[in-house]
Amino acid sequence: MTGIIRFHETGGPDVLRWESIDLGEPGRGEVRLRHGAVGVNFIDVYERNGLYQKPLPSSLGKEAAGVVEAVGPGVRHFKVGDRVAYAQGAGSYSEARIISADDLVKLPDAIDDQTAAASTLKGLTAQMLLRQVHRVKKGDALLIHAAAGGVGSILVQWARHLGATVIAIVGSAAKADLVRELGAQHALLSDDDWVAQAKAITGGRGVAVAYDSVGKDTFMRSLDTIRARGLMVSYGNASGAPPAISPLELSKRGSLYLTRPTMFHFTSTRQALARAANEVFDLMARGVIKVQIGQTYPLKEAARAHADLEARRTTGSTVLLP
């Protein structure tokens, strides 16, 4: 039997339950994977609380790393004993699982399970944001919310590597120190007037791109930091869903562009997934991206991990250990 976290109703962290299931054997195109570490992401919170609806009861989690235990018929790219990671397909909050081989990527020897579980989905998200949604170039001024978090800390490091000017928004002085260490030239506190500060930093012009994962509490103010014909990237809802917006709001602020990307649309083929993952893992292996694992919890204590994440008591990435 295999331990797994599931929920039978939406709600707070207390709806998460530890249960046992019989996995069975992998089918055609599938592998059985033994998890070494499991990543926690805000999308897990959105599914648990019902913002993103799923059939119930449901498993949880998109991201993990581990070792292939068995392969089904037709699997060509993986064998028993391979170390792999993935960032899609619900069910990572478990000791082991059956998963499509097409969702997996091989792990370089230089990257351990905890690092991979802490960074695969977040790294792929950062790759999407910096290399596909907007191809960041040297000199771009970027506003990054939740910059000390799992995705944010990777965005800061990667954006600096690309030569951007990084304006990081964080919730405390300690987090401001952290993002400066990661390379942010400017660290602003979320309780301050960061709109005016961002405008001052850019000489009144505004930033090329605002990356907003907070949502409701910051969305409209983020729009006010963007230069004419700049881009607003809304990719999360940590404070709740952003407000409905009239296209005229974009027009009067300088003909802005607005997008709400989802990473899975940018990695929908095996080739696209492998290409993005290889770029992320290469930067990690070279030390360009240093993964910040802020805290770990036993897998059975996933509810505590969710409570801390929602209360913004975490920094960097959160990892569950089976």
UniProtKB/TrEMBL annotation:
Coiled coil: none annotated. InterPro entries: ADH-like_C (IPR013149), ADH-like_N (IPR013154), ER (IPR020843), GroES-like_sf (IPR011032), NAD(P)-bd_dom_sf (IPR036291), QOR-like (IPR047618), Quin_OxRdtase/zeta-crystal_CS (IPR002364). Residues 11-320 form the Enoyl reductase (ER) domain. Pfam families: ADH_N (PF08240), ADH_zinc_N (PF00107). Keywords: NADP, Oxidoreductase. It catalyses: 2 a quinone + NADPH + H(+) = 2 a 1,4-benzosemiquinone + NADP(+). It comes from the Bacteria. GO terms for cellular component: cytosol. The keyword Oxidoreductase applies. PROSITE patterns: QOR_ZETA_CRYSTAL (PS01162). The keyword Membrane does not apply. Its EC number is 1.6.5.5. One of its GO terms (molecular function) is zinc ion binding. Belongs to the zinc-containing alcohol dehydrogenase family. Quinone oxidoreductase subfamily. PANTHER family: QUINONE OXIDOREDUCTASE PIG3-RELATED (PTHR48106), QUINONE OXIDOREDUCTASE-RELATED (PTHR48106:SF13). This is NADPH:quinone reductase. It comes from Steroidobacter agaridevorans.
